[in-house]
Amino acid sequence: MPAHRVTVLVGSLRRESLNRKMARALAGLVPDRLALDEVPIRDLPHYDADLDADPPAPWVAFRDRVRPADAVLFVTPEYNRSVPGVLKNAIDVGSRPYGKSVWSGKPGAVISVSPGAIGGFGANHHLRQSLVFLDVPVLQQPEAYVGGAAKLFDEQGRLASDATREFMTKFLNAFADWIALTGRR
Amino acid sequence: MPAHRVTVLVGSLRRESLNRKMARALAGLVPDRLALDEVPIRDLPHYDADLDADPPAPWVAFRDRVRPADAVLFVTPEYNRSVPGVLKNAIDVGSRPYGKSVWSGKPGAVISVSPGAIGGFGANHHLRQSLVFLDVPVLQQPEAYVGGAAKLFDEQGRLASDATREFMTKFLNAFADWIALTGRR
Amino acid sequence: MPAHRVTVLVGSLRRESLNRKMARALAGLVPDRLALDEVPIRDLPHYDADLDADPPAPWVAFRDRVRPADAVLFVTPEYNRSVPGVLKNAIDVGSRPYGKSVWSGKPGAVISVSPGAIGGFGANHHLRQSLVFLDVPVLQQPEAYVGGAAKLFDEQGRLASDATREFMTKFLNAFADWIALTGRR
Amino acid sequence: MPAHRVTVLVGSLRRESLNRKMARALAGLVPDRLALDEVPIRDLPHYDADLDADPPAPWVAFRDRVRPADAVLFVTPEYNRSVPGVLKNAIDVGSRPYGKSVWSGKPGAVISVSPGAIGGFGANHHLRQSLVFLDVPVLQQPEAYVGGAAKLFDEQGRLASDATREFMTKFLNAFADWIALTGRR
After folding, report:
1. Is the predicted pLDDT of residue D18 greater than 90, yes or no?
2. What's the whole-number mean pLDDT along residues A149-174?
3. Does domain D4-182 have CATH number 3.40.50.1110?
4. Most B CBs within 10 Å: which of D101, D110, D133, D141, as the mutation test of the B interface?
5. What number of C-beta contacts closer than 8 Å exist between A and C?
6. What was the ipTM of the complex prediction?
7. Shortest Cα distance from C116 to chain B (angstroms)?
């Protein structure tokens, strides 16, 4: 049985982003049942309904790459107690035009990563509110609020502690089970 | 005494946006105590901390235009039960670099406008959560969830009903009082 | 195959509550696959961890009645833009003591009912945030924000319009499918 | 000038509650400008609109004690990612009957206290959403998400670290300034 294809969206554009490091570390932990595909969001013009009739090429490419995926994983920082604008824009672009959302019915999961103690709780739950409307059934447990993240990675960008690797492995397996349970194929 | 200068941010880029119509209608109702300045957000590149050292010209221009304002008014649709990415990006750009946020201490108010019944409640309150972190004291009452908005405007884009004009006038006067009470000058 | 047993919690205590009317109207629309059981919450003392060692009889009875159910349906008004205290207390009582939550793994759904236009959006989504922690997978679509509810019922308390009956029938069938997909038996 | 009278509501009923300890520790740090009055919420029957015509004595006593206060301070744990039912019930009781809310116009502040890392963020912001409707202008900064709270108190229940005492003193002074700025007298 082929692996579930999982679109990964990283909410930060920064090269040394803790969230990008997390996404890459996950790639080393992921069970065979999942195939992660990080889809870049940097080049997506701001959503504007006036462009729906003749959409910008990056919108088309983004939608075409996400559409065939089986599931979606968000790895995001918190900006100003909510979802970074750049990530929300990618969600908005993927959701349109009306009736053609690429998200509909894809199982989802959320990891929020932050240097602070709170672990991106505000971003995590604002994202979940959007996913209700987008008809993305979201993994409830375990929740992943990853705080103090500046200390989690070694110089090669690997997760330094066994406990974090174990938690993330458990998270990915729970997500794989969730996709198997609620996915459409 | 000069009028309070109010930055107005409109969360939709669409030409015929109901929110833009609302922002323009407000300009015809605003008391002398307030001077509204709609600041465009379309051309702001996505926030990326790697660019803070040498920020894009549109970021600099946006921050320079907002910084001297006395207050900020958000007029926004709801996209996918939250704040449009393009508006959240403008907030993120204005909030950075750390310690130089243009929002800090400016009194704020939120109007959400939607063709649906719910009136953008999800966007309105997600925005309010960000404004806690940004140290923007927000007008609590009256709340402005403007639903069924497609029917509110006449062909010239004016608010068609006395009741809506009266509500919005009341809202703007409450906001002017709020700025006088909590503003920094 | 026996019907899925669904605990129904109504968030209002008022005799003529629109939410109670809705819960009763649902009983007349429910497909054979579901058996609804409205569990009263009025007599539950406020949750207090000091009582866990020797819990009040109404807590024990509530937990014992909810535990064997297959799923949970919330029908709730919005009080002060959030979940009524009395309903949140029932959730808190059911979630304790730690490790013995009666909610864990039960599929859930939320209907918010309000006389106003917004349809209890704030209560609906605050409830969903709790259900993440409680490991209740929640039906995402259709969302049920029922506004203008004072006009929905006839003098016998039945749903007066075909459109509302059809929507609620669709909602209940989607919930039955969701229970079949994500439930534990 | 007399001190501002501040109603303090503690969201936990447990005798050894970390939140109660915090409320008591605050009493030792509070500036002369504030007079704290912890109002008990344990004995308030669940809100039920049918009782408005002949309200239970504890409702009347609670409303009478809160009404003359100048401001309100919430010190609360997070239960199931939201406000404890018992605290939300006190808010609901104080808000009714319609048009007679005891909260309206009183400046407010929120401290969330938790043994976990996240510091009650979910409860803190759900509470803030209610306070919009209740017309309580809320202190935005500093935010007070107090995590790891089991280690904060010594055996006499005092705040053990200088850093925490300093933060809380700063918080209380900011709240006193906020009351002076936005209060009604």
Report:
1. yes
2. 95
3. no
4. D141
5. 42
6. 0.97
7. 10
